[in-house]
Write a structure and sequence with these properties.
single chain, mainly beta, 2 domains, six-stranded antiparallel beta sheet, 2 helices, 34% strand, disordered N terminus
Length: 517
């Protein structure tokens, strides 16, 4: 993945996103970042093919309730068919990295996140992908104050805003870094100066400094670095050649390494660094066994070949029952892209809108707009599936009714589905307390709405057979998260939730499962 660095200067301008919405829910005018001053941000080169424009339906002939559009963008990942029969992640969080030809496609990279958002603590998103030569990680930290060292030294890089990538290419990781363990550190700075980078390799007891080749490109959004004005955050793009790790190319699809990510934070010039945040939550820098799992390739599921002997459709039957709880967190439909500094740093991440009749899924590369980001949680009980069955297939269906931006601004989104292994409560779940993802399992392209469709909306489907089979085998409900790794502005997509009125039961999130004996 190649990035350009831009320096932009702009005035106190408010940008408006006009949400495409329908009667009964209403349009929403939402403002993006309106801070003034100079800023640096990475200009993402999107390697995805240019989508073919979707014809705009005649106003007198809106899409019918059963319309299922064909996505206009095609994934460019190498593996259209995932490696079959992936064992589930059972003991620690896992990210399944997609493989790409050529440049990494930003919006199709795997994504995970960690950390609490507050005036003094950071929330971080990490995108991951790889190609024939390079492992690519994009770390984006929501951070109110941005500080770097004007006189950097390798030993103190992590005492300022910085990120550390921990890798162990041998899954038999122990309690100390062996020679298969690597540590890559990069501190935020005004440019990609190599003095702000350091690399280490394990020696069986600890870490030894080594001259290892890797790239780390910083970016940030705000008024200025090293001052006391409020900013929005910073990013660091790591590009680690497989040759640096002693390999001639990427590991075989299905291979697993150990991965840990540490984010270091400083909010004032004096006073020292804040506590580190890290993924997964068990991570200890010097204990590779505590790190998470990086798997090369998306997970696959081998469908049962026996005849289907049963099927079930699972969704909320009435608005008042408690089955199929769902909620979006972050930039919800009624609180999109707020610009008030106090609200976004103190209240935004702690709001609950679990009873909303609709939800938003949104992300982008410009970290200044993190108050526009939103992800969606939904849990389906599997008690209607008899014991002792084999899952043949499972499909999640959501109904879309709108998007942020008008038809000329919005672009297709690769909306990913992930799993989580923890319960949450619809009436109290928030951005800050929602459970982290356990692993990512795939995605679907979702097009912008070109005109207002008839209810229940436009149906989009995700194959969740792998997730349902694993949940069923463990005697648990299937707990799903939907999010995206988008780069474009106006990426939000609006869907109907379980809490919609009983007049629109067909639009509620639905899980269709088939099984065999």
């Amino acid at each position: 993945m190649r990035e350009l660095f831009q320096k932009l200067t702009y005035g106190a301008t408010t940008l408006l996103l006009l949400g495409v919405a329908l009667a009964g829910i209403g349009p929403h005018a939402t403002a993006q970042d309106d801070s003034a001053g100079s800023l640096y941000l990475p200009a993402v080169i999107r390697a995805a093919p240019t989508p073919t424009p979707t014809p705009t339906p005649s106003p007198t002939l809106p899409p019918t309730p059963t319309m299922t559009p064909t996505p206009t963008a095609t994934p460019t990942m190498v593996e259209p068919t995932p490696v079959p029969g992936t064992p589930p992640a059972t003991s620690i969080r896992r990210v399944n990295a997609p493989i790409f030809t050529g440049d990494i496609v930003f919006e199709q990279a795997a994504i995970f996140w960690f950390g609490q958002l507050s005036p003094t603590s950071n929330h971080t998103q990490v995108r991951v992908g790889y190609n024939s030569s390079t492992l690519w990680l994009y770390v984006a930290s929501f951070d109110r104050r941005l500080w770097f060292d004007n006189s950097p030294a390798a030993a103190s890089l992590t005492e300022w805003d910085a990120a550390t990538i921990l890798l162990d290419t041998g899954m038999a990781a122990g309690s100390a870094p062996s020679t298969t363990a690597y540590r890559f550190v990069a501190q935020l700075s005004g440019d990609a100066d190599p003095d702000y980078r350091a690399a280490y390799r394990g020696d069986g007891q600890g870490w030894a400094t080594q001259a290892l080749s890797f790239a780390a490109t910083p970016g940030w959004r705000g008024a200025s670095l090293n001052d006391t004005t409020n900013d929005r955050g910073w990013v660091m793009t790591f590009e680690i050649p497989f040759s640096t790790l002693g390999l001639s190319g990427p590991p075989a699809a299905g291979s697993e390494w150990k991965l840990g990510v540490l984010v270091h934070d400083r909010d004032e010039q004096s006073g020292g660094a804040n506590a580190d945040t890290f993924w997964p939550e068990s991570t200890r820098r010097d204990q590779p066994a505590s790190w998470g799992t990086l798997r090369f390739g998306l997970p696959g599921y081998v469908a049962q070949t026996s005849p289907v002997t049963g099927q079930a459709t699972i969704r909320r039957a009435t608005q008042s029952d408690g089955t199929v709880p769902d909620a979006d967190v972050g930039s919800t439909i009624t609180n999109q892209c707020p610009g008030d500094d106090f609200h976004i740093w103190n209240e935004w991440a702690n709001r609950n809108t679990g009873d909303a009749p609709d939800f938003n899924i949104q992300n982008q590369s410009d970290i200044a707009d993190w108050p526009c980001f939103a992800r969606y949680y939904v849990t389906f009980p599997l008690s209607s599936i008899p014991a002792g069955k084999r899952i043949v297939s499972a499909t999640l269906t959501l109904h879309q009714y709108g998007n942020s931006g008008d038809a000329g601004q919005a672009e297709p989104s690769w909306i990913q589905v992930l799993t989580t292994n923890a319960d949450w409560q619809e009436a109290s779940v928030t951005w800050n307390n929602a459970p982290l993802a356990w692993e990512n399992i795939g995605g679907t392209w979702v097009n912008p709405v070109q005109s207002m469709p008839q209810w229940p909306g436009i149906a989009w489907s995700w194959d969740v057979s792998y997730a349902v089979a694993n949940a069923y085998a463990s005697g648990q409900p299937v707990r799903l998260i939907l999010y995206e790794a988008d780069s474009a502005y106006h990426s939000g997509k609006y869907f109907v939730s379980s809490d919609t009125g009983d007049w629109n039961i067909e639009g509620r999130p639905r899980l269709d499962v088939t099984w065999s004996d």
